[in-house]
Design a protein that fits this description.
By secondary structure, the protein is an alpha+beta fold. Helix content is 45%, strand content 24%. The chain has 7 helices and 7 strands. Strands 1-2-3-4-5-7-6 form a 7-stranded mixed sheet, with helices on both faces. The structure holds coenzyme A. Coenzyme A binds next to strand 4, helix 6 and helix 7. It comes from Collybiopsis luxurians FD-317 M1.
Amino acid sequence: MDLEQSPLLPKDSVLVRQFNPSDASQVQKVYFTGLVNGVNSAGYFAITRAFMYWTPMYMAYLLLLCGGGTYALAPIRDVRTLGLVAVILPCVFMLSVYYRIRTTFLGYYRSGLRRDMSDIERYYRLEHEKDGHLPRRFWVAEVPSATSEGGYEVVGCVALDCSPKTDHEPMIGELKRLFVLPAYRKRGIGTKLMRTLISYAKEKQISLLRLETTNFQPVARELYGKIGWTYNSTTYSDFEAGGMKMNFVEYRLSL
Ligand SMILES: CC(C)(COP(=O)(O)OP(=O)(O)OC[C@H]1O[C@@H](n2cnc3c(N)ncnc32)[C@H](O)[C@@H]1OP(=O)(O)O)[C@@H](O)C(=O)NCCC(=O)NCCS
């Protein structure tokens, strides 16, 4: 369940439209939140898993508790020192787990920046097709701003990328960068973004769409299943959080 409160949105106040350069900083916020630290992001799932559902972490909590008690109550100095060590060790362990997970997801975030997210206008530019390239598009979902009259807030995004076309293979479109800010979830915005992408892909005669998600994104996977995407394959990664390996899962949708 989302932890943040959803503001009340008037019906039909969500507009899905193509990206324009003035959206860039707001899209960066949606991207970072959706990937690294927002509720239900893969980064958030990994941290939650490691700190709430992992036996070594329970042992660290126990050691911390015992160490703290010993340090506070033991009458003998050497025993108190032992208690202090028993406090420091689990703290170091927790910090290292947090650091490792955070670094991994910041790495994914940065690799997205290097690929398409630092200059969305250039990568997904509207003239892309006119130059004979395959269709690429980036859409945002905007709602009226709660703070400035006449302003808007970008609360979600999605992108369509395309693999190079060959004579033997059909054109495959790739759904990427589907994110909705936590406070605006469960209002159909993710579905609306995805439907916009699907109808555009049909218009461009793309017969097959693919996407890659992870087993750390159960909410997204539920949404994909609901829209009709089907599981295609799994690629295993070395990354592990809370005793669970992260897998990259590919889904496909025939149009
Ligand atoms: C996945 C995501 C984009 C969905 O956005 P959204 O606007 O909440 O989606 P919708 O409101 O259209 O929800 C559609 C369906 O998704 C599922 N869903 C959405 N939020 C859910 C939640 N918190 N718990 C369980 N299922 C949920 C439900 O099946 C829902 O259908 P329902 O409302 O009829 O129950 C959003 O949760 C998100 O940004 N997650 C983090 C980033 C991410 O994982 N992106 C995917 C990258 S591969």
